[in-house]
Specification:
The relative contact order is 0.28. The chain has 3 helices and 4 strands. It has one domain: Glutaredoxin. It is an alpha+beta fold. α1 packs across α3. It has a 4-stranded mixed beta sheet.
């Protein structure tokens, strides 16, 4: 599983990264987590507001800080 956090380094983007790592730990799964700060790559996903969460190439959320429980639900 590949998880990308799209954002330019704002506080919410940093918090989402922490929440993702906590959700992965709670779920007990292995996932590659990548922080994407390149604005062109972010725009390639069609995301206009950050932070955004991309799981296996699919945008699952954008423009809000998800809770750990919300992320766990998206991980399936």
């Amino acid at each position: 599983m590949k998880i990308e956090i799209l954002g330019t380094g704002c506080a919410k983007c940093q918090a989402l990264t922490l929440h993702v790592k906590e959700a992965i730990a709670k779920k007990g799964i292995f996932a590659q987590v990548e922080k994407v700060e390149d604005i062109m790559k972010i725009m390639s996903y069609g995301v206009t507001s950050t932070p955004a969460l991309v799981i296996d190439g699919i945008v699952k959320s954008s423009g809000k800080l998800l809770s750990v429980d919300e992320i766990i639900a998206l991980l399936g």
